[in-house]
Design a protein that fits this description.
Number of domains: 4
Helix content: 55-70%
Strand order of the largest sheet: 2-4-5-7-6
Radius of gyration: 38 Å
Oligomer: single chain
Structural class: alpha/beta
Largest sheet: 5 strands, mixed
Length: 678
């Protein structure tokens, strides 16, 4: 307990000692010359300490002020001054926090806020300081002048010291290259030279040449532009430390005036020097910050354009591939149906079907990356989804990883494709597992968040979101890897251990679901993926029971498909299911057949993208002639315009290629058996 208490008291003791040392050094030249010190930097020490370390340092501040004053004045006077210093610090810190003062002083408003706030606090200290003088029995001959000087001494002291301490403690660190270091040394040399000239210590210029004092301003301005707020604060602090004993000894450019005027001119000189330097530094910092944001936006735009270009290529390949897979899967299942259970060829056929399904999964990933897959969104509860996939996740991660599932969201309803969001979770968990080859901790959690426009990309709406976070304690990622993490086929895994499509697929699915995904990672500190999905106010979708039988029908169907293999396979499936089929190899051929009054069609089974006109255009023209005709769309690729306007969103049923005969049979009956008003 004794060690803990001593450790707890160390900051108080340090602040008290620092206050006493600064105060005694400030008083030394004034005491020896029988004058009054022109500024009181110890007040700035009190404010800076409380601002950076909190109100717990009040005992140290009070002790330092009391001990310092008691060495020169009576105990009651020392108590009054210590009280004034504490109240000044409390007032300044409270107001600075209220006005959201940035301790880095990298905004133009921050030096102005500090100047205005310290003016108020110095007035409090000035009133109690005058009371201390009265209590001490050394009343000033001109009380108003004495109060103003006390006020300004604290005012300038707080500004200089708080800016110096806060900027060095909080500002961004400079990149100290050799040229920059040489520039800083040269600047200090020039500052030393100019200080001699400004304060007339050499005989080159008259000792009381007031205009020479303003040589400080270009130096402070240059320092602020080149070295930021901390550089400007340092230069002014050096000049103030030099000017303080000079003024106290009655020397320098302002010594020709009465003591009150001399101190007022010195205060004004330091104040405007400080303000000019800090303002220019803040302007440069704001400019650099705006430039950084501009460069970040440009990089984001270049990345989006690159991803869009690759997405178009990937989407086109997946579209053609899906047409081939539709025929392969369809014919394979028809062959399996025709084979007896004990037929040795059935095993070979099943292997073909499994290979085709793996290829279909790959094309779905490609389409998800390109954001051109038609998702089938439903309102689901993320917490329920997590509980459903948890057993599978635990089998995937292995025994050396401790996984925690934390469903903290109270309103986790989101509108997404259930299968796709499960794939996203699986991809992220697999990546986390691979990042912890020696084991570790994995956390998957949900929570409720409200995001404003500043926290999201420009194309994402602010509001309430459900957050899905996947965090690991793995090896982490350097900045160059994080910058490319969502690129397709980019992987840091060994050959054969990753396709490079997992995270790009997750990115595409989330963005297509109007969500946003972010990654936070540092080498050796693990990785966190945060997925933000807009919260839905609708009720969760209830899953319907699965019918194992392949439903049949006798309706007449107009089949419009421009790919010959898909058209032939679809016709064979539909005819085997009992339907009457009329086929068309293009959109215009479908329109011509649909315009024949001698034919009756119950449904148009139509590809979305045809060589001449789109499937929706064909259906709209057919519906104008035959209002009762229904439609079922199919496609392996839907361009962005149709995805965004939403075939499914408009209530039209859709069948994603590649599909199996069972998928087609079930979907057809679902469309044909639906009531007219549904």
């Amino acid at each position: 307990m004794g060690v803990s208490a001593g450790t707890h008291r160390r900051p108080d003791v340090a602040v008290a000692v620092i206050y006493w040392v600064i105060a005694e050094l400030t008083l030394l030249p004034a005491t020896s010359a029988g004058r009054v010190t022109p500024m009181w930097p110890a007040a700035g020490v009190a404010v800076a300490a409380m601002l950076l370390r909190g109100r717990g340092l009040i005992p140290g501040i009070a002790a330092g002020a009391f001990i310092t004053t008691s060495l020169h004045m009576s105990i009651p006077a020392a108590f009054a001054i210590a009280l004034g210093i504490v109240l000044e610090a409390l007032n300044d810190v409270r107001l600075l926090q209220r006005f959201e003062f940035d301790e880095r002083l990298e905004r133009v408003r921050d030096p102005l806020i500090l100047s205005a706030v310290s003016l108020v606090g110095a007035a409090v200290a000035g009133v109690l300081g005058m009371l201390a003088i009265v209590v001490n029995g050394t009343a000033a001959p001109e009380p108003l002048v004495a109060f103003v000087l006390w006020w300004m001494r604290d005012w300038i002291g707080v500004q200089l010291v708080v800016a110096l301490v806060a900027t060095w403690a909080r500002s961004r660190r400079l990149d100290w290259t050799w040229p920059r270091l040489a520039e800083a040394i040269a600047l200090l040399f020039v500052l030393a030279l100019l200080s001699q000239l400004m304060f007339g210590l050499w005989s080159i210029f008259p000792g009381q040449n007031v205009p020479m004092a303003f040589l400080l301003f270009p130096v402070v301005g240059y320092t602020g532009l080149r070295f930021g707020p901390s550089g400007a604060a340092t230069v002014v602090a050096i000049v103030a430390a030099f000017a303080l004993p000079i003024a106290a000894l009655g020397l320098g450019p302002f010594a020709q005036f009465p003591i009150g005027v001399t101190q007022f001119l010195l205060h004004t000189f330091l104040l405007f020097g400080w303000l000019s330097g800090q303002t220019l530094a803040a302007l440069m910092s704001e400019r650099e910050e705006a430039l950084r944001r501009h460069m970040a936006l440009e990089e984001q735009l270049r990345h989006s354009q690159k991803m869009e270009a690759v997405g178009r290529l990937v989407g086109g390949i997946a579209h053609d591939f899906n047409n081939l897979l539709t025929a392969i899967l369809g014919y394979t299942e028809m062959v399996m149906v025709s084979l007896e259970p004990g037929d040795p060829r059935r095993g070979d056929t099943e292997e073909i079907a499994r290979a085709a399904m793996r290829a279909a999964d790959l094309t779905r990933q490609m389409l998800a990356f390109s954001r051109k897959q038609v998702l089938q969104p439903e309102v689901i509860d993320l917490n329920v989804t997590l509980s459903k996939v948890e057993p599978m996740l635990r089998r995937v991660i292995g025994e050396d990883i401790v996984m925690t599932i934390a469903a903290k969201a109270t309103a986790a309803l989101v509108r997404v494709d259930p299968g796709q969001i499960e794939q996203v979770i699986m991809n992220l968990v697999v990546n986390a597992r691979d990042a912890m080859p020696r084991g570790g901790r994995l956390t998957v959690e949900t929570s409720d968040v409200r995001l404003d426009a500043s926290a999201l990309p420009p194309d994402t709406k602010p509001g309430m979101y459900a957050l899905l976070a996947v965090s690991d304690t793995g090896v982490g990622m350097p900045a160059d890897v994080r910058a490319r993490i969502f690129e397709p086929y980019f992987t840091t895994k060994d050959i054969g251990k990753g396709t490079g499509l997992g995270l790009s697929t997750a990115h595409g699915i989330i963005r297509q679901s109007d969500g946003h995904i972010q990654v936070y990672s540092e080498p050796g500190l693990g990785t966190t993926f945060r997925i933000y999905l807009p919260r839905s106010e609708a009720a969760a979708t209830v899953e319907a029971p699965v019918d194992e039988n392949m439903p049949r029908g006798t309706e007449h169907i107009l089949l419009v498909e421009d790919d010959p293999s898909v058209r032939r396979m679809s016709r064979e499936i539909l005819e085997r299911l009992g339907y009457s089929i009329t086929e068309a190899a293009s959109g215009r051929a479908g329109l011509a057949l649909g315009s024949d009054d001698t034919r009756h069609f119950d449904l148009a089974f139509c590809d979305v993208i045809l060589g001449d006109i789109s499937g929706p255009a064909v259906y709209e023209a057919l519906r104008a002639l035959r209002p009762s005709v229904r439609v079922l769309y199919m496609s392996g690729y839907v361009d962005e315009a149709i995805v965004r306007t939403g075939v499914l969103d408009e209530g039209h049923p859709f069948l994603q290629k590649p599909f199996t005969p069972r998928d087609l049979a079930v979907k057809l009956r679902e469309v044909l058996d639906r009531k007219e008003d549904e």
